[in-house]
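User: quick one
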Amino acid sequence: MKSYVQPEYLIERDNDRCIRCKVCVNQCSYETHYYDEEDDVLCSRNENCVNCQRCATFCPTQAIAIRKNPNTYRPNANWTQEVLTGIKKQAETGGVVLTGMGCDKPNLTYWDRLLINASQVTNPSIDPLREPMELRTYIGSKPDSLKLTTSKTGDITLETKLAPQLRLETPIMFSAMSYGSVSLNVHKSLARAASEYGTYYNTGEGGLEKSLYKYGKNVIVQVASGRFGVHPDYLDAGAAVEIKIGQGAKPGIGGHLPGEKVSAEISKTRMIPMGTDALSPAPQHDIYSIEDLRQLIYALKEATDYTKPVFVKIAAVHNAAAIASGIVRAGADAVVLDGVRGGTGAAPRITRDNVGIPIEMALAAVDQRLRDEGIRNKASVIAAGGIKSSADVLKAIALGADACYIATAALVSLGCTVCQKCYTGKCPWGIATTDLWLTKRINPDIGVKRLVGLLRGWSLEIMEMMGGMGINAIESVRGNRLVLRGVGLTDKELEVLGVRMVGE
Amino acid sequence: MKNLAKTNNPYSDEKVFDACSIFGMMNLKGERFSAKDPIRAMANMHDRGNGLGGGFAAYGIYPEYKDDYVFQIMFLDKEAKKKTARLISECFNIVNEEEMPTQEANVTDPPLMWRFFVQPKESKMENQSPDDFVMEKVTRINTETGKAFVFSSGKNMGVFKGVGFPEDVAEYFCLEEYEGYLWTGHGRFPTNTQGWWGGAHPFSMLDWTVVHNGEISSYGINKRYLEMFGYNCTMQTDTEVMAYAFDLLMRRQNLPIEIVSKILAPPLWSEIKTMTPENELALRALRQTYGSLLMNGPFTIIVAHESEMIGLTDRIKLRPLTAATKDDMLFLSSEEAAIRLVSPMLDKVWSPRGGEPVIGRLETPVAEATA
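Assistant: Done. Structure below.
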């Protein structure tokens, strides 16, 4: 069948600059470039190009430019280029249109409409380069009060036993991305960076590769609906266990790692035969209700001897507040909320862009509900899905999060350009692939440096903003919505966010 | 008519900012002395206020009624007084009641003020301690009528405050005629309020009083944390949040001031790391559990109740506090000069470190800063 879909991008090559080195041919995993020996010229198959910019980045003479195809259908506000192309693709394949990464629509983000305060006159701002500025955060269930005794010498003895806590040197963790959806080198980079900076990396649902057990103290092990790679040693290896109920990019649906990605190594870690599809069911089939969730939470606590916090991760959906309250009452030590802009290795485009709610709203509603019910101390709240800068992190904390999970930003620091083709398994940047030829493109030694650079850069920026507000400990920002003001929001939006309008 | 209708926060700002002078003077043996010295000390720090609020708290001033709760109340009109008096006589036996003695002074729009010496009626208490009963009724009067405000409700103590400079407010209330063993004072410099009589310091509930200089940058979360424990922050001031934090931690959770000071102004993580393992564990747990009550940003407070006067600053000491002793007297002040004015010769003068409480207790030696 002749495809009616035109190439999205056109490759322009400056033949005067091109030195025929063929780097572009070697770098492109989609076979977009080829060398014509007869004419000694490099040519392109535009229809293959995903605009990942790998070739342009590595071309030593900057001979390549990738442009959006200027051919457009007749402009139409309803029947847009994207809509028409989607329908044509669907008609030709008869399938669900897949995509990768998070929702790319502009209308679902609130971070940019929230502004942060600073001190002027009535209290002093603090210079974080010269004075202490504390970002340390503990994740876990906190009591409402403590019992302590003081001796005559002023020593204090703690009588209350606290639930297990994770110590974060910055309120940023690496969110779940399974081994299989991303490569082992990516996992190595994440694990080592988390360990070096004093934070945590989440395994995702594909288990923990044996060589990474040594980073266990900085690893959150995930238990998802497929239960891939879940066994006693795995639970013991991590610092915390996360039950994954849902994911912001695809609330309510499961996952599918195609058999061709299940290599020997992945088969070993996931504990499934090589070459078989790894299917994650939509629900956890032993959790059809909140009381079932409680059983799994306590089964995992029993299995780990009550030494590790148990997180429960849900996609941010309409009644997230009530669900989160149930999760806390079911005994979770932390609730993870993953917003509609959260990323994925593969999801139906229609689900990614239409199901779920923005993290800002879910977070604000959950934090307020838990406070209204007097149970906010019983669990930490972690925000995920669409956190793209240090300001987003700080705003999330001010809305009520204890910490944030980042994943897309972490991958971008490793090279990802958010081309949204993760589901093809051919990631030219060597990230969302298990192809050994491609995974070599991530060198963990360099990956660690880039990830630590990101954590450090964001942490310094958070300190600058806190210092500006005259606040020297992150716990004084947490849930402190008075440090935020909204711009361009309706009264109702401001009400749900619990934030005042600018100028108020 | 009298000017109680002004609210504490006329522009509906997120909260009211204050800067000010504060002073405290306590005889540790419990011997009473006149208000003359505290008034002179406050007058000496005149320029730290702007005339939009001044006040004093005094302990030991009603020995003839020492077992009775004293309600000192501002009324917007006679009707409010009638209604409030009815509520009081329903729930309490009134031992005595009278209009607050006042005289002409340079103050702005004083409201009608009365004081009631009362005992809770046993038949009205439902499994409550008398303190909780009183607190509930005071909150009811303050929130229900909108035209009456109880600004003092402890035993054998009283708060005297209003719109004016502290020395003028003192003159208005004829304070020189009172004798107490513990006095605190406050001169106010609000940046965004016209000032109303109820909004002046000290802020008080039962026999607890707080005078406060500072702006709490963590106010938003302090308030939301306290709301989880049933406190309704209606005054929108940092001082109110301070007072409720003390009530929660000291009265309800029974924590001593030494620990409470570590919650409001905790040591840095880098300092906690250097402590003995036992202290490290305890201090870590305090920050983990009570992080939302860390009072971040500049503050100095003097908190007092029947037997104690406590001075505390924020952990990096962004507002001043000087402490001094002379014989049985403990002084706390924004400025040393104010102390020297009333007691030129001192046994000891020191500048407490950030987050280190200075504690004066009746009949016990003063716990001095370790600095």
